[in-house]
Write a structure and sequence with these properties.
single chain, 8-stranded parallel barrel, 11 helices, about 45% helix
């Protein structure tokens, strides 16, 4: 049974206060969103990652809980094993969008040519799912290191696979967003990390349907200078989507060292109006995390 808005917000608010008054603190400096619906922010359109938020709830209830907090969108990982008609129906009823989902994960690797036939089939199926969910973006992952292959060879294989899939995505008006990871904390042994090589891959594929899932958390750990690299990515025209989490901890903004007010303001100034995925672990409660995200969306105009 889905949680009602009153039940969810009431219990979440009580939990937030119980872990140190975070709900009340959200009403302090910089908080612009309503305390009960902090997902309604003035600038950034946040998308809750339903794999990492509300983990104790059934999947459909996670979508409802995200809508209850005022968020305009959700994102999730693989579509396999999920009740897609029910997701589409609930999102329509609650007026909440699916910002993106994962069409191809870590294994088998896109960075091996022997997997490219399966990759193409997965993209064809993913495009069908994207149409069903009215979702314009699908994440794809390059893969972990392959013994015997150099990084250059793995990146070239990734390019070749994306070139095969790009016409399919173009036909269906879906954008494949390639996500570089970080290898220092979360994904040791992954073949693709940092903005530089990922931009080179997109440039080599040369398709409007292949861009980057620019996860600011991964980029911060890998290379820093988030605003400077954002400017380079926008200048190249290859940023398709943004995600965020703070570091260390991979929790909500304000729990680590990243000044997300500055970074989100820079993305706004650069013209980014897409969703920003909240691929993070709420540190205490989802309500407190949502209010922290609202505070990160507050800044003064230049």
């Amino acid at each position: 049974m889905s949680l009602s808005r009153r039940t969810f917000v009431g219990s979440a608010l009580a939990g937030a206060v119980g872990v140190g008054g975070l709900a009340g603190a959200a009403q302090g400096e910089g908080a612009k969103a309503d305390s009960a619906t902090p997902g309604k922010t003035p600038h950034t359109r946040f998308a809750v990652n339903c794999e990492m938020w509300f983990r104790k709830l059934p999947f459909l209830d996670r979508i409802a809980a995200s809508a209850d907090l005022g968020f305009p969108a959700i994102e999730f990982w693989p579509h396999e094993g999920k009740d897609l008609p029910a997701i589409a129906r609930l999102c329509g009823q609650r007026n909440i969008a699916v910002a993106q989902f994962t069409a191809w994960g870590f294994k088998p690797g896109l960075n091996e040519t022997k997997n490219h036939d399966a990759f193409v089939k997965a993209i064809e199926r993913g495009c069908e799912v994207a149409k069903q969910l009215n979702c314009p973006l699908m994440t794809v992952v390059a893969g972990d290191d392959v013994p015997g292959l150099t990084q250059e060879q793995m990146h070239q294989n990734t390019i070749e696979g994306l070139k095969r899939a790009a016409p399919i995505a173009e036909k269906h008006r879906v954008t494949l967003i390639l996500e570089p990871m970080n290898i220092r904390v979360d994904h040791k042994g992954h073949c693709l990390y940092g903005s530089g090589p990922t931009l080179k891959i997109c440039q080599a594929v040369n398709s409007p349907a292949v861009k980057i899932n620019w996860d600011l958390y991964h980029m911060h750990i890998t290379e820093g200078d988030l605003c400077g690299h954002l400017r380079e990515g926008f200048a190249a025209g290859h940023i398709g989507y943004l995600q965020l989490a703070d570091h260390p901890g991979r929790n909500e903004p304000g729990t680590g060292e990243i000044h997300y007010n500055r970074v989100l303001k820079e993305a706004w100034k650069l013209g980014y109006r897409g969703y920003v995925g909240l691929e993070l672990n709420p540190k205490t409660t989802e309500l407190a995390a949502a209010q922290a995200c609202a505070r990160a969306d507050a800044w003064e105009a230049d």
